[in-house]
């Protein structure tokens, strides 16, 4: 409900951290192999990829939330480096400074 309100808001919009946090909640709170968990992993992946926010945090939690088969289906069997640029176009992740 809160996430859906966020999506409809004219004042704020989700980013890669928002999507990663929602996937984390899906992985930790919804029962394994439940239809609800599968529904939310799909919904979040479709929305985040459409919005260009498939980041490292999101993918890490997607691997936890989805079965290997479902993960493969959602990512179309691609590795991170082979994702379409549209899926990641808005992700700005901070990297540790090189020493």
Describe this structure in words.
The protein has 99 residues and is mainly α. The protein has one domain (2-78). It is 61% helix and 0% strand. Helix 2 (16-29) packs antiparallel against helix 3 (35-51) and helix 2 packs parallel to helix 4. It is globular and about 45 Å long. The mean pLDDT is 92. Residues 72-99 are annotated as: Disordered.
Mean pLDDT: 92
- Alpha carbon gyration radius: 14 Å
Helix-strand pattern, N to C?
HHHHHH
Helix/strand class: mainly alpha
Provide the β-strand percentage band: under 5%
Structural domain count: 1
Shape: globular
Number of strands: 0
Figure out the total of helices: 6
Q: What is the helix content?
A: 55-70%
First and last CA, distance: 44 Å
Largest sheet: none
Which regions are unreliable across 5 or more consecutive residues at pLDDT < 50? none
Region (Disordered): 72-99
Question: What's a quick, concise take on this entry?
Answer:
This protein has helices spanning 2-8, 16-29, 35-51, 56-65, 68-75, 85-88. With 99 residues, it is an all-alpha fold. The chain has one domain (2-78).
Main attributes of the structure:
single chain, 99 residues, mainly alpha, 61% helix
Layout of helices and strands:
Layout: H1 2-8, H2 16-29, H3 35-51, H4 56-65, H5 68-75, H6 85-88
Helix pairs in contact: 2-3, 2-4
């Amino acid at each position: 409900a809160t996430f859906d309100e966020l999506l409809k808001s004219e004042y704020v919009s989700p980013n890669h951290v928002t999507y990663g946090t929602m996937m984390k909640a899906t992985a930790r709170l919804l029962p394994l192999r439940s239809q609800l968990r599968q529904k939310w992993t799909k919904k979040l992946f479709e929305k985040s990829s459409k919005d260009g926010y498939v980041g490292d945090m999101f993918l890490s939690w997607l691997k936890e939330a989805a079965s290997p088969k479902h993960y493969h289906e959602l990512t179309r069997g691609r590795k991170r480096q082979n994702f379409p640029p549209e899926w990641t176009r808005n992700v700005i992740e901070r990297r540790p400074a090189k020493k």
